[in-house]
Amino acid sequence: MSTLSDRLEAARREAQGRHAGDPDPSDLARPAAPRATEDVVPAAGPAATVAPGPMAQRTAVVAAPDNRAAQRRVLASQETDRIEELKASVHAELLRELGPHLYDAEMDQSELDQRVRTVLAEVLGAQDRPLSNSDRVRVTQEISDDILGYGPIDPYLRDSEVSEVMVNGYNDVWLEKNGRLQKAEAHFADEAHLRRTIDKIVSRIGRRVDESSPMVDARLPDGSRVNAIVPPLAIDGSALTIRKFATDPLTVDDLIAFGSLSPQTADFLSACVRGRLNIIVSGGTGAGKTTTLNVLSSFIPSDERIVTIEDAAELQLHQDHVVRLESRPANIEGKGAVTIRDLVKNSLRMRPDRIVVGEVRDASALDMLQAMNTGHDGSICTLHSNGPRDTLARMETMVLMAGMDLPIRAIREQVASAVDLIVHQSRFKDGSRRITHITEVERMEGDVITLQDVFVFDNSPGFDENGKVLGRLRGTGLRPKFIEKLAYANVAVDPAVFRMDLQ
Predict the structure, then answer these.
(1) Beta strands 306-310 and 354-357: pairing type?
(2) Which end of the chain has fewer beta carbons closer than 10 Å to its terminal beta carbon, N or C?
(3) pTM of the model
(4) How far is 162 from 224, CA to CA, in rounded Å?
(5) Exposed (0-12), middle (13-18) or buried (19+): which is 456, by Cβ within 10 Å?
């Protein structure tokens, strides 16, 4: 048994042999002091562990979704670029395969359609780049629209709810739906792509658009009106505006259903057309003048010869005896232009019963008045104006554009003698188009032409909670003086139509 001195000596030797850096066993039982830069989390129990601070947690949570979103955007951009590159190569290959067949005027459209789709399927099948079914359908549709139709705007031209397509540049496309403007989810690849589409539209009717002739009016095969303007006049790139016409034209019943006119006013206008009154349809841009002109023309008896004169043929008459004339711009040498005025003069030699002019906007107003005053009763035309009184003022101004040194009184006497009725139309804020005035042109009183409103739009009910117009066309209670002229043409009008309280 060792003595106390032996045990003390053994303890000293053990203490001397310990390394200076070794921790003291007793220190392991004591918790370490926290550092100033670390977050202290109180222990909830014996098994508690030290958690990272809240700032570190927030940074980690926010950074991960941002990285994933950025990665998705990069992948989507790469996929879009790949599809666009594939479309360009397939498009070029398709043009090489088909060559001049695309512009063969003798080839039937359905046959060309089938040929393009067959070659397109072959070209896509020969591509060494894998495509999903959805991408294949998308590429096929977009290239078909480009080759056979009008590129990215083709789906909107097929959409019956779209009434107007407006391209303000290759990457800025707008639509009009239900009288409201909205931006379209479509764009052209570049300016050259948009110009190819414009050239395709205008070349089909023998017109052109380039730097020397940067504006053009044209039409699509279905009668839709087209206007294009290109640089240098269009500063931000080519602009294309297409006002669509329904494949099934609106009828008088449609206008009644839309509230543009009432059944009584429809019967009255029908009597005026059958009674061979000379009528001017006036209104602002997009007010629906051409649609109303179409409806009024539908009242013309089928046994009469009708000559229509337009800048771009868009009237859709269903009578049997219709001759359609269209003006022509000058050629590249500045020659060969045929104006509306030339066509109005020529129509007088064509034995017309009725002359229908799509729009009077220049000196052709003088020839139109001459036609109305030389036995061609029952003529109808449209012009832009803000109201019935302004319609007469514009007519006078356009007559003066003919260069004839006519006194104003002589012009007004011609207008008062020629024009019987003004049908004025307006477009309201809710997008609806309504006939607001049906006005009789009476006679001269001094130097002023007197007008008498037969029907006027009553807007006193105001608007509903959705901003829709509640007013309607009402009679003024006054009977027009041309009732006798209608009776002479064996057309009767019920006097009750003009009652103010008639619903």
Answers:
(1) parallel
(2) N
(3) 0.70
(4) 12
(5) middle
